[in-house]
C-alpha cells in the first residue's frame, strides 16, 4: 500500500534540495552571462557545444550536469532561452551523461568499473546527441513559433538580480510540482505487489525495466545483493549496467526538459533505441574479448 506520508516527506526533501540548488545557480548563471564571464570558461567544452549545435554559453550547463545533476544543468541553461531543438539535444546528452560522480559509484557496486562507466556515458552521450542534430527542424516548428528566443537585456546588476530571482522562483516551482508528482507516481509503482514480488526474484529484463522507469540508483540498487551473491553472471551485469547507463529514469529526466518545450518523443525514442543498439554492439565485443 502506498505510504502517502513517506511520499510527502520525500517530496519535501527533494523540494528543499531543488530550492537550494536551482535558485542560486540560476541567479549565478544570469550574473555570469551579464558580465560575459561565460566566454572565458566556455572553451573547456566549446568543441562539444559547437558539434552539438549548442551555444557556447551552455558550457556551464553541460559541466554542472555531468558532475552534479540535471537540476544544476537546467538552472544554468534556463536563462539562455534555448530553442526547443537545442533543449532536446541537451536533454539527450545530459539524460545519458549526468551525475557521473554519484551514479558511477552506484554502478561500481554491481561490478561495473569506473573507467567503463564514465567512458561509455560520455562517448555514447555525445554520439547520440550529435546524431540528434540531424533531426529535421520541421519536428520543432510548432513549438519554436511559440517561443521567444531573444536574450533579455538588463540595465544594471540590481535589475539582473531582481529579474533572475523571480524567474528562478517560477522555475523552481515548476520543477517542484513536477518532481512531487513523479515521486508520488514512482512510490505508487514501488508499492505494487508485483514489484515487491520481482524484487525477491531478480530477473535481467525486470531489472532493466525498473532502471528505465525509476532510475539508475533504484535499478542498480535492487541488483547489488544478487550481484554480490553471485546469482548474476558477469555477462548479465554487463548487459544490465550498459543499458541502464544509457537509458534510465526516462520519465523524470524527460519531463524536466519538456518544461522548456523539448520534444519528449525524440528524447525517449533516441535514448531507448540507442541503448539497445550500443548494448548489443558492446555485448558482441564483450563475448569476443
Automatic annotation (TrEMBL):
Pfam families in alphabetical order: Gate
Designated name of the protein: Nucleoside recognition protein
Keyword terms, alphabetized: Membrane, Transmembrane, Transmembrane helix
Record bears the keyword Membrane: yes
Organism annotation: Halarcobacter ebronensis
Keyword Zinc included in the entry's annotation: no
InterPro entries: Gate_dom
Membrane-spanning residues: 15-38, 59-80, 86-106, 118-135, 168-186, 206-225, 237-258, 265-286
UniProt domain Nucleoside transporter/FeoB GTPase Gate: residue ranges: 16-111
Amino acid at each position: 500500500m502506498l505510504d502517502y506520508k513517506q511520499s510527502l516527506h520525500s517530496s519535501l526533501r527533494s523540494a528543499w534540495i531543488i530550492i537550494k540548488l536551482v535558485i542560486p545557480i540560476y541567479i549565478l548563471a544570469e550574473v555570469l552571462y551579464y558580465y560575459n564571464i561565460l566566454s572565458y570558461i566556455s572553451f573547456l567544452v566549446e568543441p562539444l557545444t559547437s558539434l552539438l549545435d549548442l551555444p557556447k554559453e551552455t558550457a556551464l550547463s553541460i559541466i554542472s550536469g555531468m558532475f552534479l545533476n540535471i537540476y544544476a544543468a537546467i538552472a544554468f541553461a534556463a536563462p539562455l532561452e534555448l530553442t526547443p531543438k537545442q533543449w532536446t539535444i541537451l536533454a539527450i546528452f545530459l539524460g545519458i551523461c549526468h551525475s557521473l560522480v554519484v551514479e558511477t559509484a552506484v554502478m561500481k557496486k554491481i561490478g561495473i568499473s569506473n573507467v567503463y562507466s564514465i567512458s561509455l556515458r560520455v562517448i555514447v552521450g555525445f554520439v547520440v546527441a550529435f546524431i540528434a542534430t540531424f533531426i529535421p527542424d520541421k519536428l520543432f516548428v510548432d513549438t519554436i513559433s511559440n517561443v521567444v528566443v531573444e536574450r533579455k537585456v538588463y540595465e544594471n546588476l540590481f535589475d539582473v538580480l531582481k529579474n533572475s530571482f523571480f524567474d528562478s522562483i517560477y522555475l523552481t516551482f515548476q520543477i517542484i510540482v513536477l518532481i512531487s508528482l513523479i515521486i508520488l507516481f514512482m512510490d505508487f509503482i514501488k508499492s505494487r505487489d508485483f514489484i515487491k514480488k520481482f524484487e525477491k526474484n531478480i530477473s535481467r529484463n525486470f531489472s532493466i525495466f525498473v532502471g528505465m522507469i525509476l532510475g539508475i540508483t533504484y535499478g542498480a540498487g535492487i541488483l547489488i545483493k544478487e550481484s554480490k551473491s553471485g546469482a548474476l553472471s558477469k555477462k548479465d551485469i554487463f548487459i544490465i549496467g550498459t543499458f541502464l547507463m544509457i537509458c534510465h529514469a526516462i520519465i523524470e529526466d524527460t519531463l524536466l526538459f519538456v518544461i522548456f518545450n523539448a520534444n519528449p518523443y525524440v528524447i525517449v525514442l533516441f535514448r531507448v533505441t540507442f541503448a539497445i543498439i550500443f548494448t548489443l554492439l558492446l555485448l558482441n565485443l564483450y563475448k569476443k574479448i
